[in-house]
Design a protein that fits this description.
126 residues; 5-stranded mixed beta sheet; single chain; Immunoglobulin-like; mainly beta; 13% helix
């Protein structure tokens, strides 16, 4: 019985592994979600069923604007908290919310969380 259960568990793990793409990694922005407009860095993050991208690498020492985009968002990612900025806001179910943040020092990391802490994103300033 013990051996049979071990075999079943092994088969389940192998089957699940077949559905995970090789080399998969967390949703890391490739820079396409960052632009510089009039000397201000603009970071776009989508909020629906979580945040995307989950990791953004941004430039330090430049004024920054985060644009939170929602489209039919009715889950907990529609409530955003950025603790280090003392920011807490209910996002509209569809639209764009702009969050202005001052220039951040090299090595700073901003963490954003949904209301339940279930979904998160981070912005690393290099």
């Amino acid at each position: 019985m013990k051996i049979t259960l071990s075999i079943i568990v092994a088969i389940i793990f192998i089957a699940l592994a077949m559905f995970i793409p090789a080399g998969s990694s967390p949703d890391v922005g490739d820079g396409n979600n960052i632009s510089v407009v009039d000397g201000k860095q603009v970071i776009s993050i989508n909020a629906k069923g979580g945040f995307s991208p989950r990791v953004t690498n941004a430039k330090a020492d430049i004024p920054t604007e985060i644009r939170m985009r929602t489209q039919g968002t009715f889950d907990c990612s529609s409530t955003l908290s950025i603790p280090s900025l003392d920011y807490f806001e209910n996002l509209p179910s569809s639209g764009e919310t702009i969050i202005n943040i001052p220039p951040q020092k090299v090595g700073t990391k901003l963490d954003g969380l949904c209301a339940m802490g279930m979904y998160n994103f981070e912005i690393n300033f290099d």
